[in-house]
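Researcher: Let's walk through a ligand-bound prediction step by step. First, I give you the protein sequence. Second, the SMILES string for S-adenosylmethionine. Third, you return the three-dimensional complex as structure tokens. Ready?
Model: Ready.
Researcher: Here are steps one and two:
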Amino acid sequence: MEHHHHHGEADSTAMIELLDLDAEVLHSYLLDVTTWVGQLATDAPTRVLDLGAGTGTGTLALARQFGGADVIAVDQSAEMLARVRARAEDGGLADRVRTVHADLDVAWPAVGLVDLVWAASALHELTDPVRVFKDVFAAVHPGGLVAVVEMGAPPRFLPDDIGLGRPGLEARCHDAVARAQADWEPHPDWGLRLEQAGFTMIAGQTFTIDLTPPHPISTGRYARAYLRRIRPVLEGRLAVEDLSTLDTLLTGDGPDSLLHRDDLVVRGTRTAWAARRP
Ligand SMILES: C[S@@+](CC[C@H](N)C(=O)[O-])C[C@H]1O[C@@H](n2cnc3c(N)ncnc32)[C@H](O)[C@@H]1O
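Model: Step three, the predicted complex:
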């Protein structure tokens, strides 16, 4: 999900599906991370800003966690923000969720003061995070919080032996992606950048995701959406036999395909930083 900077139309549709499915498949993780933020807050936040909100997975989790809060979702994509509003409506949260269309690289939007700023898998996409952090600082009440989350280990879904091809396919896929991206910068230490912007770091946490999700169909769609996204990178980097096994997983309709398997899990990590405005 990270490190993809070329967003074509098909790409954006796939991204929307993947982000939407996060909410369903990673429900327990979202509960854990928003609970963690709630424990760090001195008072329950009443105005929350979600930067780079995407389809609103974080926005809605925050609105649920902080029942008295208004949550403002900011994104540069009008398409993403339309999804946020539709999902807020579906979830009965429309009265507390607002969207603001803005490119943070261009200018900080007029959103007023907030008690909590949340940014998940978004800051690594900014051109000038240092400038944005200064604006974040100015937007947070003294005593308020900023919570930043990035993906750690990429998600894994399959057992080592999937009963097709040579065992270890998924590990080879991830190795190939890592080789292809060897010169790409991993996300920075946001804790340091937050301190430089004037915040005081109060907590850092790695969340381990290791679950058998309650909805196997969603998990299959999620695994397929993720592996489809990395499929182009694997071309020419995986053995032909592996690519063919992968395509059976992705496009097949039999019991071996991702959509119909009953042996999927979700494993991965998220790294989180929390800082307070003194
Ligand atoms: C990988 S998605 C993460 C979405 C969401 N935070 C989540 O965790 O599901 C990154 C989002 O950041 C947005 N984004 C990237 N650069 C941005 C910018 N300069 N201004 C506003 N939004 C931006 C993208 O449009 C995209 O929706």
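Researcher: And what stands out?
Model: Confidence is low (pLDDT under 50) at residues 1-5. Residues 216-234 form the longest helix (19 residues).
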